[in-house]
Structure prediction request, 436 residues.
Amino acid sequence: MSEVAPAPSVADSRGASRLMWFVGIGYLFYILADPRDGIAKLAIKYTLKDELHMDAARLAMFGLVVNIAWYLKPVAGIITDTFTIFGSRRKTYVLVTTALASLLYLALASLTPTENVFLVCLMLMNVALVFAQTTLGGVLVAAGQEFRSTGRMSSIRNAAESSGVLIASVAAGFFAAATFKNGHQASYLTSFVLLVGMVVLAAGLLKEEKSASSGIDAFYEKLGGFRELFKSRAMWATSFFWLLVRFSPGFQTPLFMHQSETLKFSSEFIGTLLAIQASGNVLASAFYVWACRKYTLRTLIYAGILVNVVSSACYLGYTSQPAAMAIEALYGIGNGLAFMPFLDLIARSTPKKFEALGYALIFSFGNISLFGSDAIGSRLYEAWGRNFSGMVWMNTATSLLVLVAVPLLPKVLLAAKEGHSHIGDVAVIKEVGEPD
Prediction:
């Protein structure tokens, strides 16, 4: 049984409150400025499609290349956890990498758009944002453990990210429409301002003591502990499961091409559809707060997968604006109900002492699957004569395939309800035993 911790002091409460504000605003700003999902997302896509004349296959392959840093997020975790800059373990990484990303947005707003300009700027920008977000995750974990507020910290992160997606979904459509009239500068300059604001915020709110430990010594100490990390069967089983979950060959670039080319939806309306889907995800997240305390994780995973399969199949009727709005709302709820238990599973299966690295490692499998499946799906979309219905059937089938992998997951992780076990304590698995 767990021991009851003493109540935090006033100083602790103030420190926790300060870091909660920093984490919440930080995740919100990073989502809004993310070139993959932020307010510049559609402006970038329209530039590549209309000005640089990329088809679906080239557009997906370009995304696969410029987003390569997100597949290597664990490397950023090792570096930021191990090596300090002028004695700073977190603050300097946030300041330097966020400032670099802001300058790259300024470059996109100033330079003539060419494939090489976008390739270099977006690749470097993603590297900088990977380090910044990985460091912010380290701040979240460390503060949550120090102030015994991991639940509140995680809730703030989810709320901030959901709000960021919702805001970005609406803003992206308007900024993309403005690109045809006023150039691309509006979305890029707004992202620049957000990241500069994040630099100011980090300088004021992120306090830390200088680390006296040697980076090399810490690195060798970390290497010695890697054996425990890579022996975790729970982590590897969850990584494989997450890879299957994120394999979505039809609902990224092919969907965008179907919306913009086949159905001739305006950029504003596409942004509205993204907002509708994000709203559905927010509702599903709110529902999960109640459901995770009522039902076991196994029940929630099976139910989520089935709901996601049904909502995915609804895209067969994606033929008009009213239908698109209804389907995006349904898919947002279904996708959210499917993803929330998966995210819960990831948190439960991340080994102790490697919270940041293990968490990033599992998510990297998902990133590789997401962008790789987009490249595969986009090529098939072009090869099949832009037959979107075929992509819907493929996406529905891959969603259903995830059911086969559920029995492979450690049973002890799936058996508990929220609050009935020490979430994330993989030592429990060693006591109960993992399935063979």
